[in-house]
TrEMBL record:
Membrane-protein topology: Multi-pass membrane protein
Similarity remark: Belongs to the cation diffusion facilitator (CDF) transporter (TC 2.A.4) family.
Annotated keywords: Membrane, Transmembrane, Transmembrane helix, Transport
Organism: Adlercreutzia faecimuris
The name this protein goes by in its record: Cation diffusion facilitator family transporter
Record-linked Pfam families: Cation_efflux, ZT_dimer
Entry keyword Transmembrane helix: yes
Length: 306
């Protein structure tokens, strides 16, 4: 196993560990909210429970996608399989849309028929406050792990779990209004849950499309500054980056002394590659195009036009 494939496997294992922990917690939270909501007739609690069930399904999608993403590069996928993690986040987005439809249609039906069945007891608030505390802990844990591991799938799931927090707050408010004599507040808050789920789905899709559309992953000026600092470089231009946040591919053009030998120019290119990888650990590969100083190439003005 190469160093790069070993690193990819290690990254995948760390992501999988986070997803398994979150899966168990989400499943426990979903069961508590849904079954108590079913027993008490609360549409908003059932809706929140369904939302949490989709969280758990999303965790399974994440586990499958990260297993695929961890596979090493091969002849058919010379850049590796990292985008399977992005595809997994898209599936989570679709699941969120399905959850929004399920929750929203149920709430609309209750409002249209005037069927308000919620029965609020102290236990209702105990269940919601307890699951809210768990969701807050899960969200904090996932966001920290996602930033540390630079994992799109974990960050997508963290956004999903964060929406659970706001949803639970809305459900608690709805239960309080029902207890005060406003039974229609329960399905109304279920509609608020629907809107929160849709916003969560939008955030997941936006992050995935950023990767799939090859949006620049690193600031061009920062990459250029690192490469320009290498001794012997006369200029840097045409800096491009793409990939996922955890696996970035970079290419750039450098100007060198026209009298420099091919061997020395190649060594300079290796030094630039090492400098960029050292500054940006997420960079997997740096392709350096070497040009003699004064050759404008595809840019106008040569080095002076950086």
């Amino acid at each position: 196993m190469t160093v790069e494939s070993a690193a990819g496997t290690s990254h995948a294992h760390r992501v999988e560990r986070v997803l398994w922990i979150v899966f168990v917690l989400n499943l426990a939270v979903a069961a508590a909210k849904y079954f108590y909501g079913l027993a008490s007739g609360s549409a908003s609690m059932q809706a929140d429970g369904i939302h949490s069930v989709f969280d758990s399904v999303g965790n399974i999608v994440g586990l499958v996608s990260i297993a695929l993403a961890a596979r090493p590069a091969d002849a058919g996928h010379p850049y590796g399989h990292s985008k399977f993690e992005t595809y997994g986040s898209l599936v989570i987005g679709v699941l969120l849309l399905a959850a929004a439809f399920e929750v929203g249609s149920g709430a609309v039906e209750k409002l249209a028929t005037g069927t308000y069945t919620a029965v609020v007891t102290p236990a209702s608030f105990a269940v919601m406050v307890g699951t809210l505390a768990v969701n807050l802990g899960v969200t904090t844990y996932e966001r920290r792990a996602g930033r540390r591991l630079k994992s799109e799938i974990i960050m997508a799931d963290a956004a999903h779990t964060l929406s659970d927090v706001f949803v639970s707050l809305g459900v608690i408010a709805g239960l309080a209004l029902v207890a005060l004599g406003f039974p229609q507040a329960d399905p109304v808050m279920a509609l608020v849950v629907t809107v929160a789920i849709l916003f969560s789905a939008w955030g997941v899709f936006r992050a995935a499309f950023r990767t799939l559309s090859d949006t620049a992953q690193l600031p061009e000026a920062d990459v250029r500054a690192v490469a320009s600092a290498v001794e012997g470089i006369r200029g840097v231009h045409r800096v491009r980056t793409r990939g996922t946040e955890a696996e970035v591919y970079c290419d750039l053009h450098i100007w060198v002394d026209p009298a420099m030998s091919v061997r020395d120019a190649h060594a300079l290119g290796d030094a630039v590659e090492a400098a960029v990888k050292g500054r940006f650990p997420a960079v997997k590969e740096v392709l350096v195009h070497i040009e003699p100083e004064g050759d404008a190439g595809d840019d106008e003005g040569g080095p002076a036009g950086e």
